[in-house]
Structures are given as C-alpha cells and as structure tokens.
Specification:
The protein is of the alpha/beta class and 195 residues long. It has one domain: Flavodoxin domain (Rossmann fold, 3-Layer(aba) Sandwich). Helices cover 35% and strands 19% of the residues. The chain has six helices and seven strands. The protein has helices at residues 14-28, 51-55, 64-74, 91-98, 142-153, 176-193; strands at residues 2-6, 33-37, 77-83, 104-106, 114-116, 124-130, 156-163. The strands form two sheets. Strands 2-1-3-6-7 form a five-stranded parallel beta sheet, with helices on both faces. A hairpin with a 7-residue loop joins strand 4 and strand 5. Helix 1 packs across helix 6 (176-193). The radius of gyration is 16 Å and the shape is globular.
Length: 195
C-alpha cells in the first residue's frame, strides 16, 4: 500500500490535486493507495516527552496521529506533499514529521546513537512541494524538510517534485507538463516497490 499525505490548509487546492493524480496512477497500476489530508486530522505537535522511547509509539496523545500510525506502518510507499509556507513545509506537515520521532530507538551513551525501526524494510517515498514563485531557491528548505527526516527514518526517496509558479487552487491539474511529472513520479514509486 502507498500512503499519500498532504499538508495544505486549503481544501481543493494543488496539494489535493497532486494527491489525486498519485491515487489515479496507483489505481491504474493495481496498487492500493490511501490519502490523508492533514487539515482533517486534529493532532498535537511533538512535545519531547520521550515516552515513545519506552512505549515504541506515541502514547502522550491519543489524537489524529494515533489513526495515522497504523497506515504508516502498513505502507511501504509514502508520498509527502506540502505547499511552501515561509520557505518551509506547512505547520501541519512539520508536526506530522515531528511525530514520526516515535519510530527511533536510541542508545544511552552520549552523544546518543540512534536507529529507525522503519529502516531496512524497502520503504520508498516521493516528496513534492508547491510554490507560487518561479525560482526553486524561493522554496527554501521545503524539500529538505521532508527529504532529510524520511531518509533518516529509512526511506529511499525515488522522486522529488518541485512545482513552481502555481498558486491558484487546483491549477496544477491544468498544467500538462506538471501533471506528466507527477504521473512519472507516481509510476516510479510503484515500480520501485514492485522490485
């Protein structure tokens, strides 16, 4: 299964449209796809309580992430899509990523060593970011803010999608060049999971 997670506060926007393209490609290729719109979930940001070190999952909160954790564990493929907010991912996406901290194991020495319980399982991911600006540097840290944590968790990033020069809600689906890039990334994700 592939889990698609988008972090836009806008319903019916470009992140939604990108997720629908991923879903369509997966459906055409016979791969189950589950989409999650973070604005529809109520969840707290990580507060660093460290309970997850012992419990191996976040037990501080019983919230929207509690519903997403089983899907994350079940999915070998992951798609993260975020609009650019102030040179970075949205607050919803940042909190989602921070709450994946519960999948790390740490040693007791200083500085602490760590490993991810999601690593070594053939997990693959695609990351995408949407910006109104036309220069990729104006995306700032957005792609890095998704890539680096996912790689640390053990995901191989098979494609990155910087979508530039698009702001109006849902307009990406009318841009044939961008749609083709998204479809190609979705196919690459499906292929990588079937090897």
């Amino acid at each position: 299964m592939i889990l698609g997670v988008e972090g836009s506060p806008r319903r019916g926007g470009n992140s939604d449209a990108m997720l629908k393209i991923f879903s369509s490609v997966c459906e055409q290729q016979g791969v189950p796809f589950s989409g999650a719109h973070l604005r529809d979930y109520r969840y707290e940001p990580c507060v660093g309580c460290e309970r997850c070190r012992k419990d191996k999952i976040c037990t501080k909160f019983h919230d929207g992430m509690t519903m997403l954790y089983p899907k994350i564990l079940e999915s070998k493929g992951l798609v993260l899509i975020s609009p650019v907010h102030n040179y970075n991912v949205t607050a919803w996406m940042k909190s989602f990523i921070d709450r994946l901290y519960c999948f790390y194991d740490f040693t007791n020495d200083r500085p602490r060593g760590w490993s991810s319980r999601l690593a070594g399982q053939g997990r693959k991911a695609v990351i995408g970011a949407i910006a109104e600006q036309v220069d990729k540097t104006d995306m700032g840290f957005t792609l890095d803010a998704m890539r680096m944590p996912l790689e640390a968790l053990g995901f191989e990033i098979v494609a990155e999608l910087p979508v530039l020069g698009i702001f109006d809600a849902g307009k990406v689906k009318k841009n044939e060049e961008e749609v083709a890039k998204i479809e190609k990334a979705a196919s690459a994700l499906v292929s990588s999971l079937q090897k």
